Amino acid sequence: MKRFTLALICIISINACSSPENGGSPPDLAELVIVDSIRVNENNFYLNGQGQIKIVGESLIAVSSIRKPAIGLIDLKTGNQIAQISASEFPEASFFPSSFDIVDFPVLYIADRYSNSIYEFNILEKKFIRRIKLQIPSEKVIKIALGEFHKTSSGFLVELTTGKVDTMHPDYYRNAGNLIYSFNSNGDSIGSFLKYPEIFTSQNGTINSQTYLKSTHFNNSFLYSFPQEGKIKRIKDKAPFSVIEEMDIPEALYFDQTLKGLDRIVTFDDFQNGENIQFPNNHYFNSILENETQIILETWMMNSEKPSNPRTSNLLIYDKAEETWYETSNPRNILDIGMLAGVVNDTLYFYEGSLMKSDEKYIKRAVLKPID
C-alpha cells in the first residue's frame, strides 16, 4: 500500500431493494486516531440542535442551530464563539436556517424555507444586508432542513422539494422532478437539473425518508452523489448543467451502498392506526468535501447488530494524484466523532455539538495512520 499520511483535526418485512454493481478494488485502509479536543465556549449565545457545519478560511467554523434558529462562528484554536446571527435579533429577517453558505466571508447567506428566500448578512458586523426573494415554481419549496445550497460566482444553487406527494410514497421519487435550481444574484430562475436516479424511481415500496443527495461546490462545479447509486458525478455550475465527470465509488468494507426499503407502501394512516412499522435505515453521506488533492466523504451508518452503538461514521477518501480510494478502518459513534466541517491543507476538522451525549460541545483533533 502506498504510504498515506494525513493530519486531521476532528471537531467533532424488509427487503433489499437493489445495490449498485461497482467493480474494482476495495479501498485501502487507514486508522483514525483521536489525539485531543477543545471545548467550545459560547459566551452569551447558546446554539441548540446543530444543523450544518462549514469551515471558514483556515481558522473558523460556522455552525447552524435549528432549535434556536441561528448561525454561530467559532475560533478553531480557542473554541470561543466570536460572532453569531440569530433570527430573534432580526424581526425583519426572521429566518429558519434550512441551509447556509459563507464562502464570501464575512457575508453569510441563509436559505429560508418559510419565505422561500435567501437572507444576506454580515456576520462580523451583525448586520442584515438584504433579502433575495427566489422565483420558485409554485409546486416547489426550499427543503426545510439540510438541503443542498451553494453560493456561486453568478448566483445560487438551491435544492427544492415538493409538498404535493407524501415522501413515504414511491411516487415522490418518480414525480419530484429536478432537485437543484439555479438562480442569479437577484433571485431570478436560470434553470434546473438533477432528478432522482433510477435506483430510487424504480422502487414500488416505501423507503425511509432521509437525506440521500449530498454535494459540494468547487472550482465552478457541482460535485454530488446519491450513495446508493455508487457514483460521484460532476456538473458545471452554469447551463447546460450536463455531467462532465463521473467516478465509481468502490464497495467499501463498512459502508453499505444497498438501497433498502419495505415491500409495501406505508401511509400516515398506518401509524395513526397503531401499526408498529420498522423502516430499514440506509447508510448515507453526511457530507462531501473537495479540495485540490482529495475528495472526502463522511459516512453515517446504522448498526442494527449493536443497539448500544447504533450509528457510526467513517471516512472515504479519494486521492486525486494517486487515483486511489482509502477508507478509515475504525468507524466511530457519531456522538464521538461529530460532523465533518472542512479541510485546511492536510488537516480535517470535525465538530460535535449535538448535546445527545454531553452537555458540552467539542472540537476534536485526530490523525490518520496508514495500515500496511
Q: End-to-end distance, in Å?
A: 6 Å
Q: What is the CATH topology assignment? A: Neuraminidase
Number of strands: 30
CATH architecture: 6 Propeller
Low-pLDDT regions: 1-20
- List the total number of helices: 4
Total discrete domains: 1
What report would you give on this structure?
Strands 1, 3, 22, 23, 24, 25, 26, 27, 28, 29 and 30 form an eleven-stranded mixed β-sheet that branches. Strands 12, 13, 14, 15 and 16 form a five-stranded antiparallel β-sheet that branches. The protein has one domain (6-370): Neuraminidase. Mean pLDDT is 88; it is low at 1-20. 5% of the residues lie in helices and 45% in strands. The chain has helices at 171-175, 198-201, 268-272, 334-337, and strands spanning 6-8, 14-18, 28-39, 50-56, 60-65, 70-75, 81-86, 97-101, 107-112, 117-122, 127-133, 141-142, 149-151, 155-161, 180-184, 189-193, 214-218, 221-225, 231-236, 243-248, 259-262, 284-290, 294-302, 311-313, 315-319, 324-328, 332-333, 339-344, 347-352, 362-370. It has 372 residues and is mostly beta strands. It starts with 5 loop residues before the first strand and ends with a strand. The radius of gyration is 20 Å and the shape is globular. It contains four helices and 30 strands.
What does this entry show, briefly?
This is TolB-like 6-blade propeller-like. It comes from Algoriphagus locisalis. The protein has 372 residues and is mainly β.
